[in-house]
Amino acid sequence: MMIVDDHAVVRRGIRAYLEVLDDFQVAAEAADGQQALDRLREMSTHGQLPDVVLIDLLMPRMDGVAATAHITGDHPGVKVVVLTSFGEMERVHAALAGGASGYLLKDAEPEEVVAALRAATRGDVFLHPSVARGLTQEIVSPSTGLSALTSRERDVLILVAQGCSNQEIADELVISERTARTHVSNVLRKLQLTSRTQAALVAVRQGLVPGQQPA
Q: What is the value of pTM for the model shown?
């Protein structure tokens, strides 16, 4: 397996715990998403791809959401499990949409991390209990209209109304362009809209961008 986290002490702690188990061998580490992709590419040329990647979300150069999508797209046989401090539903949706096979928070017990990794290698999905509850709540009591948007998605809607491109949104919010694109898609889906122009109209009519008229 591979461990991807920008904190060396976290990588070493996880590695030390997993390597005492008979069914895990840590083949590589990476400090960010781009480094993970580079190492996976190199490992692929030698036929040594790991079965699973355990990855953080908030990292420099390339975040975990973008890296997850690249990993699952470039190496379909490699499973990805997210281990992060962030449990907001927008991040969960983005990670799962990118192909993640598990989503854990860093307050998880070591046994839960092991269970998630084993589940991923079997082709199953393992979710942190609070994440599972959040997803269930969305199904049972879905929000509608602007109330359905997360705070980050509202920020994205305002930037869309201001005419920003996906790359400009990414630059403003310090996220990847792919993540910005996912946020825009989620905004359109939740508001049941089909275009950025419609989204801009909604933002203006709801007073999110006072005094501005969409093009």
A: 0.69
